Write a sequence for this structure.
């Protein structure tokens, strides 16, 4: 009789422990999912900003490289004129 009484008292405790563990795991999964969503949003924002930044820098870089190439071409042309 004592064993039956002990078993009936332990079974609800075990099921409560399982429910608590399941609830804790659900909260943990939701927390991890929220962190992943925030990191994903940050990654998308960084991607958009970097695309815009590269578009802005491209114009400046293009102008600078053209100026450098023109200066080099002018130096070669003047050197070539002096040699001839």
């Amino acid at each position: 009789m004592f064993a039956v009484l002990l078993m009936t008292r332990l079974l609800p405790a075990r099921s409560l422990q399982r429910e608590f563990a399941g609830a804790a795991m659900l909260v943990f999964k939701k927390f991890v999912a929220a962190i992943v969503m925030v990191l994903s949003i940050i990654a998308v924002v960084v991607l958009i900003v970097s695309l815009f930044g590269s578009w802005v820098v491209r114009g400046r870089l293009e102008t600078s490289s053209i100026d450098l190439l023109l200066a080099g071409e002018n130096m070669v042309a003047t050197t070539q004129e002096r040699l001839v």
About this structure: The radius of gyration is 36 Å. The mean pLDDT is 81. The CA atoms of residues 18 and 24 lie 10 Å apart. Helices lie at 2-83.
